[in-house]
Specification:
By secondary structure, this protein is mainly β. The chain contains 1 helix and 9 strands.
Length: 128
C-alpha cells in the first residue's frame, strides 16, 4: 500500500512547505478499512458494510528506508450473516479521513463466520 490520498498529500505539502496555519498533527488513532473496489485518491470506493464489519485499529513501527509496516496483527470482527463479499483493497484512516490506500496482494472473499486478519508486518506504507 503506497498511494496517499489527495487529503493527505495536501496536508503533508502544507506542513513541509511551511504553510504555518495548516500544520499537520499526527492522528492519535489509526484504523484500517476494507473495500470491495478501489477507493482511489478521493476515498470514493465501496467500503465493506456487512454485518459485524467495523474499521479496526492499527499501529505501525518506525519508518525505515521510506517504508513502515504494521507492528501487530489487525484482526477484524467476525463476519455476520451473509458475510462481507470480496475484499480487494484496504485504506488507513485517521478517524474520518482516509490517508493511504492500496490493493490487496490477494483478494479475499469473507463469508459468514470468517475473520479477516492482516498479520504483523504485512501492511506496508511506502512513500516513493
Amino acid at each position: 500500500m503506497s498511494a496517499a490520498t489527495n487529503f493527505l498529500e495536501n496536508k503533508v505539502l502544507d506542513h513541509v512547505l511551511g504553510e504555518g496555519v495548516r500544520n499537520y498533527t499526527s492522528p492519535a488513532v489509526l484504523t484500517v478499512g476494507l473495500f470491495s473496489s478501489d477507493p482511489g485518491e478521493t476515498g470514493a470506493g465501496t467500503e465493506i458494510s456487512g454485518t459485524g464489519y467495523a474499521r479496526t485499529g492499527v499501529t505501525f513501527g518506525a519508518a525505515s528506508a521510506g517504508s513502515a509496516t504494521n507492528s501487530a496483527n489487525v484482526t477484524f470482527p467476525t463476519a455476520g450473516a451473509g458475510g462481507w463479499g470480496s475484499v480487494t483493497h484496504a485504506g488507513v484512516f485517521d478517524g474520518t479521513s482516509m490517508l493511504f490506500y492500496g490493493i490487496l496482494t490477494i483478494a479475499k472473499v469473507v463469508s459468514e463466520s470468517d475473520t479477516f486478519q492482516i498479520n504483523s508486518g504485512q501492511l506496508t506504507i511506502t512513500l516513493d
